[in-house]
Amino acid sequence: MELEVYIKNCLKNPEFKKYWLEDDLPLIESDTQTFIDTYKELLDLFESEEEYKNKLDSLLANKGIKSNSVKMSIEFYEKDNVCPVVDFLDSIQDLKLKEKTVKNIYNLSELGLDINKTKNSSYVDDGIYELRTIHSNNIDRIFYFFIVGNKIILTNGYIKKTEKLDRAEFKKAKQYRDEYSRR
């Protein structure tokens, strides 16, 4: 499944959409026109011109996302019609945390390797990275890896309950990466 398809499905939920509209992205300086072009498809989903204009004005005021890096495509790892990242995202009960997580994933597609310059991502080990989202007392982690051709594969995620890395989840991420590479 592609990220844009997942976002469109999420935006069908009025409460999720409300959070999406309220919450500006963690932003970095950018070429404003490129940012507008990138967001236009999602902004077109908004029902009213006023809703669109308000969000666009907010994005412009914050200068959008850095666009000098190459946009990466995001793919969710899937095997036998099972997609661990989508299952994880769908299991998040706190809708605000879910919305922030989806936005972080979207930012990952925009920033690519530059995401590591933010506090939301870091290298873990063995070619695996983690994307962190924090809301209130909740922290979630999603593992991912890069492949040639400007693509990022998200493997699995979990809600972090301790300071330590969940080794079982990390092991799954490496297993999914290896399975993906063998295809």
Account of the protein in words:
The structure is a single chain. With 183 residues, this protein is of the alpha+beta class. It has a domain at 9-23 and 70-182: 2-Layer Sandwich (YaeB-like fold), CATH 3.30.2310.20. The chain is built from 7 helices and 5 strands; from the N terminus they run ααααβααββββα. A 5-stranded mixed sheet has the order 1-5-4-3-2. The chain is globular. The two termini are 16 Å apart. Mean pLDDT is 78; it is low at 26-32 and 60-69.
* CATH superfamily membership of the domain at 9-23 and 70-182: RelE-like
Oligomer state of the chains in this structure: single chain
Low-confidence segments, given as residue ranges, are 26-32, 60-69
Radius of gyration: 16 Å
- The average pLDDT value, as a whole number, equals 78
Number of strands: 5
Largest sheet: 5 strands, mixed
Order of helices and strands: HHHHEHHEEEEH
CATH class of the domain at 9-23 and 70-182: Alpha Beta
Order of neighbouring strands in the sheet with most strands: 1-5-4-3-2
User: What share of the residues does DSSP label as strand, in percent?
Assistant: 15-25%
Portion of residues in helices?
40-55%
Helix/strand-derived class? alpha+beta
Instruction: Please name the CATH architecture of the domain at 9-23 and 70-182.
Output: 2-Layer Sandwich
Shape: globular
Remind me, CATH topology of the domain at 9-23 and 70-182?
A: YaeB-like fold
Number of helices: 7
Distance between the termini: 16 Å
